[in-house]
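To fix ideas, we reproduce below a protein record of this kind.
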Amino acid sequence: MANMKDIASRAGVSVATVSKVLNDLGGISQETTDLILSIAKELNYRPNLYARNLKTRQSRTIGIITEDITVFNAPPIIDGIGSCCEERGYHYFLENLRLYNLGFSPLLDVNEQSSIVNDAIDFMMSMQVDGLIYLGSHSHKVVHLPSIGDTHFICSYCSCTDPSIPSVLYDDRKAGYDVAKYLINTGHSSIGVITGPNGSIHSAKRLTGYQEAIYDSGLRYNPKMTAQGDWNRDSGFMLTEQLLRNGVTAIFAQNDLMAMGVIDYCVKNGIEIGKDIALVGFDNREISTVCRPTLTTVSPPLFEIGHTAASLLIDKIEGKPQTASGEILLECSIIERDSTKR
């Protein structure tokens, strides 16, 4: 592989001159610059980034540690990070912890998870990254890890026990409020909710937002209108009968998979969604556009979470003034489709 000495020898200049040109430091005539760049291309020269990093003490790379890349939220968040890196002239390394597939729970398996995360951080530090983004598979608290030292650190789709570390998430509470208000404004006063499991931060905040909207609209909250699911399709199917028996005219399923269960039940029992009952899901998964009827759902700003997290991290790396800390909450949007025909 060609190096700077080879280019310098071919061009008849010093290695220092080649270094200035290849590192875009200026001070070299255009004619010599063009010659050196031409020879570098001809010799298929590739810079030694590790050596450059040691000299400059900056790699212009960031590390992404994702709890599990197979979880639906991870790819668009990583895409947002990648887009910001392209705009700012950075690259990234990606480490997939596979916690979901390995059966680890961030809430129950704290010690085991900390060990896996620390190993990933050690790897990233060995790659001389300038900062780290930790990408959660769901909203939970990440214990501040001493292994990061003074490395720039940002959480996305989760938050950190250290309030000084910025965490970029979406606003579940406002999303729940907006869904309830949307259904109330379309004429519903008996709105059922199928929640996620106990202990889920997403579920608790969405339910709180729903309850606040009911209160603000002058309606009475009826606990019988709330049923606890488990994020899976079958729970949506099983709980629909209970909610219909209690007189609901609309259902807010706190994720799209449970909403599919509601559709299954209604189809089986001759209930027309969008006419006999309104239905709203959450997550804007691909299935929401191909089911019949198509599903009105909440679209979380996943790409924006990634882009915002990367922008904050790069600002920290470059020493720009920091105004953000703690949880940074982005807004979701409601995508209206056939399951809530007005």
User: Anything to note?
Assistant: The longest helix spans residues 110-126. The CA atoms of residues 11 and 36 lie 6 Å apart. The mean pLDDT is 89.
